[in-house]
Amino acid sequence: MKKVMVCGCGAQGSTICRRLDEEPNIEEVVCADYNLAAAEAVCKLMKKGTPKQVNAAHVDEIAKAAEGCELIVNVMPLEFGVNVMQAALQIKACYQDLSACENVVEGFPEYDTWLEGIRYMYTEYGRRFAENGTTAIIGTGSAPGVMCVMARKAVNELDECDTIACMVYEGTRTKRFIPFFWSPEVALCDMEEDAYAFENCQQIRTKPFSRPIKRNWPECGREVTLVEHAHDEPVYIGFNREKYFKGCKNAYFKYGGTGIEFSEGLYKAGLLHHTPEEFEGHEIVPFDWVLKHIPMPPKDPEVIKAIIDEGIVEDNGAFVCEAYGKKDGKDIMVDLHVSSPGLEEAYERAKMTGEMYLTGQGAFLYTKLLVNDMVPQKGLISSDMLDDQQVEQYIAWANDLGITYTIDIKEGCKFDG
Question: Domain named Saccharopine dehydrogenase NADP binding: which ranges (predicted)?
Answer without folding.
Answer: 4-137
